[in-house]
Write a structure and sequence with these properties.
single chain; alpha/beta; four-stranded antiparallel sheet; four-stranded parallel sheet; 8 helices; 34% helix; globular
């Protein structure tokens, strides 16, 4: 699987100010038939983006032209529910590189990191500040700095640190999945094997 290298970027954000968003809301089960990672973004939040007749719900943030960017900002406990990896696939395929929340379900967080999607966990107060900033200006800009593990509100300059496993950080920075990482250290593996003979 090819994962683009993660570099510092500044972007607008799409706010979905809902808590306990589960994986079935992210990508409903009826769309899980494909085994390739492509095409799932079309059905991201399908039952919230479209009504029963298939018409777009104008008030849903992903349908609101005021919001755009590579950052999805969501309420607490994002990605709960089933363990489907397709939830991370759908978010990444839609074009998001980062999901911001004050808490992520463990399995979703791991699936996200394995698919080049950065889950940024921040405190509740800073999350509220982000939502307030977007309400003040729907085109508000935010900077995601993986190298220094900082998320910044551009207008105010307010930043908050976030944590990430060192191995997963290295993978994101280099565009590696787990197999790519092993290939990148094949010389070290070979030397170790030689030393064991």
């Amino acid at each position: 699987m090819s994962i683009p290298k993660f570099e510092t970027f500044t972007s607008g954000a799409v706010p979905v100010e809902v808590e306990n968003i589960d994986t079935d809301q992210i990508i409903p089960a009826r769309f899980l038939k494909a085994t390739e990672r492509k095409g799932f973004g079309d059905n991201l939040f399908r039952d919230w983006r479209y009504d029963a007749s298939g018409a777009r719900v104008a008030t849903f943030p992903l349908n609101d032209p005021r919001y755009e960017g590579r950052i999805l900002v969501a309420g607490r406990n994002f990605g709960c529910g089933s363990s489907r990896e397709h939830a991370a696939w759908a978010i990444a395929d839609y074009g998001f590189r980062v999901v911001v929340s004050s808490f992520f379900a463990d399995i979703f967080r791991n699936n996200a990191l394995n698919n080049g999607l950065l889950p940024v966990r921040i405190g509740e107060a800073f999350l509220r500040e982000i939502f307030d900033e977007i309400r003040r200006d729907p085109a508000a800009q935010f900077t995601v700095d993986l190298d220094n593990q900082l998320f910044t509100i551009v207008r105010s300059g307010h930043s908050t640190p976030f944590e990430i496993d060192a191995y997963k950080k290295r993978c994101l920075q280099n565009g590696y999945d787990d197999v790519d990482y092993l290939v990148s250290i094949s010389d070290q593996i070979g030397a170790y094997e030689q030393s064991r003979r």
